[in-house]
């Protein structure tokens, strides 16, 4: 059981606060934020101050925090906070500080129904909809995604009408109440995200030492009624590692949402379901070892000994190995430098790039807004050390790490073959949108 729940902004302002039991002192939100700032880096999700335990998660810059004086299961509290954040996103459309402030009456109604005297009750959008009566205030969400949703090619079979082939990435940021109220002017739409996070480690020769993909298929439905959906995956998809599988797509393990009927999955890799309200994860999967498609980026470092006193040039080359029609965005290359470096200048070969040198951490951060597939990009770092430390620069640089996002590209080769919407007695043409995104989780090069 929890005692209090509150939502904080990145500045520490409390936008929502609920006290369910009255057994914790006042001002706990301020105590939590002061302790949070004292950690400096990433704070632990759970910590205690005197007799009060603080448990929190961070979503879109907002802190969802609960307190308790009891010895509760920490994973249960974290799961409760995660579900509450999902409820706020489903009913507000987008999870931002502005949406929480504009819909605070709706948020309090959700918290009253979801938690009773500190005990979680109803935490799914599907079950909660019959108890929620306040309407949401729509907010235009901000997004950093450079690629929106593309229309599923199988939609062409429903007619030759001229229809747009893509929508912005903020298109699904609509309150779920629009589906529940049955507005006549509302489009029948369904959005699918195929997201993959890469964990890759390269050795000094550029060979892959470790490669893992954590992927998921997320879905958000704005369809009228309760239609049956049929989602087709790759026919050559194999579950479970087996020797000699050749070029098929092999996942180590996977799990599905409880609404999925797997009766046809073993036969033709088709998922049959009736989608619940709100955003949900249709499938989680994990892949280790070789990938079906090329890894998106490689980094090569070279060193040039200049004539200047204690000066060494570190040349960073970023190779973008994705197809030429694709592109990467929001790339950040972190290059740790020797502790003996006194200063660092740089030269860039193209616009749309910037370099930041953090003197205290001895790290050079190279940022690129957008890179095209099949091209290489260069950054020259001019580091200054003492003459004695100059010969050790090449041995003390690294490891280099990357953060990036690659729209409409996944390394696993997993794809949505088709998405069919079936319901008796209804004759409507739904809009079906799909988006593929690859993110970096840990992408490291040893130098």
What does this structure look like?
The protein has helices spanning 28-38, 74-92, 97-102, 104-114, 125-128, 177-181, 265-268, 393-396; strands spanning 4-8, 14-19, 46-49, 52-59, 62-68, 115-116, 119-120, 149-151, 166-167, 189-202, 208-222, 228-232, 237-239, 249-251, 253-256, 260-261, 270-273, 279-288, 297-305, 311-320, 327-336, 343-348, 353-358, 363-372, 376-384, 400-407, 418-422, 431-445. The protein has 8 helices and 28 strands. Strands 8, 9, 10, 11, 15, 18, 21, 23, 24, 26 and 28 form an 11-stranded mixed β-sheet that branches. The protein is mainly beta. The longest helix is centred in the first third of the chain and has 19 residues, at 74-92. It is globular, with a radius of gyration of 25 Å. Residues 142-146 and 154-162 have low confidence and may be disordered. Helix 2 (74-92) crosses helix 4 (104-114).
How do the strands and helices of this protein lay out in sequence?
Blueprint: E1 4-8, E2 14-19, H1 28-38, E3 46-49, E4 52-59, E5 62-68, H2 74-92, H3 97-102, H4 104-114, E6 115-116, E7 119-120, H5 125-128, E8 149-151, E9 166-167, H6 177-181, E10 189-202, E11 208-222, E12 228-232, E13 237-239, E14 249-251, E15 253-256, E16 260-261, H7 265-268, E17 270-273, E18 279-288, E19 297-305, E20 311-320, E21 327-336, E22 343-348, E23 353-358, E24 363-372, E25 376-384, H8 393-396, E26 400-407, E27 418-422, E28 431-445
Parallel strand pairs: 10-28, 13-14
Antiparallel strand pairs: 1-2, 1-5, 3-4, 4-5, 6-7, 8-9, 8-28, 10-11, 11-18, 12-17, 12-27, 15-18, 16-17, 19-20, 20-25, 21-24, 21-26, 22-25, 23-24, 26-28
Helix pairs in contact: 2-4
């Amino acid at each position: 059981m929890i005692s209090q729940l509150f939502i904080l902004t990145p500045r520490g302002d409390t936008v929502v606060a609920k006290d369910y039991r009255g057994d914790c002192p006042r001002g706990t939100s301020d105590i939590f934020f002061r302790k949070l700032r004292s950690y400096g880096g990433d704070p632990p999700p759970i910590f205690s101050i005197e007799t009060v335990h603080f448990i929190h998660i961070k979503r879109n810059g907002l802190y969802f925090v609960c307190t308790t004086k009891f010895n509760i299961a920490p994973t249960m509290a974290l799961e409760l906070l995660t579900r509450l954040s999902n409820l706020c996103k489903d009913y507000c459309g987008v999870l931002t500080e502005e949406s929480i402030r504009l819909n605070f009456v709706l948020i309090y109604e959700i918290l009253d129904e979801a938690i009773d005297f500190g005990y979680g009750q109803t935490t799914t959008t599907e079950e909660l909809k019959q108890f929620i009566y306040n309407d949401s205030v729509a907010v235009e969400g901000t997004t950093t995604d450079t690629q929106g949703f593309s229309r599923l090619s199988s939609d062409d079979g429903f007619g030759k009408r001229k229809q747009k082939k893509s929508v912005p990435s903020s298109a699904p940021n609509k309150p779920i109440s629009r589906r529940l109220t049955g507005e006549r002017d509302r489009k029948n739409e369904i959005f699918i995200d195929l997201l993959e996070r890469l964990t890759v480690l390269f050795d000094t020769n550029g060979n892959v030492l470790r490669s893992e993909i954590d992927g998921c298929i997320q879905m958000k439905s704005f369809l009228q009624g309760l239609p049956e959906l049929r989602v087709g995956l790759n026919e050559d998809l194999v579950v479970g590692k087996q020797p000699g599988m050749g070029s098929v797509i092999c996942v180590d393990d996977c799990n599905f949402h409880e609404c999925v009927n797997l009766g046809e999955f073993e036969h033709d890799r088709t998922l049959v379901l009736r989608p619940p309200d709100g955003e949900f994860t249709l499938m989680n999967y994990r892949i280790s070892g070789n990938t079906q498609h090329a890894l998106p980026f490689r980094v090569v470092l070279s060193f040039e000994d200049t004539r200047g006193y204690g000066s060494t040039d570190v040349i960073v080359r970023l190779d973008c190995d994705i197809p030429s029609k694709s592109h990467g965005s929001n790339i950040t290359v972190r290059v740790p430098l020797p502790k003996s470096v006194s200063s660092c200048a740089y030269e860039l070969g193209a616009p749309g790039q910037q370099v930041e040198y953090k003197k205290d951490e001895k790290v050079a951060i190279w940022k690129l807004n957008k890179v095209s597939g099949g091209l290489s990009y260069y950054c020259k770092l001019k580091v200054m050390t003492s003459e004695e430390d100059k010969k050790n620069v090449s041995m003390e640089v690294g490891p280099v790490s990357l953060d990036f996002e690659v729209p409409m590209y996944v390394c696993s080769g997993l794809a949505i073959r088709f998405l069919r919407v079936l319901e008796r007695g209804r004759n409507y043409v739904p809009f079906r949108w799909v988006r593929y995104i690859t993110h970096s989780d840990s992408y490291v090069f040893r130098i």
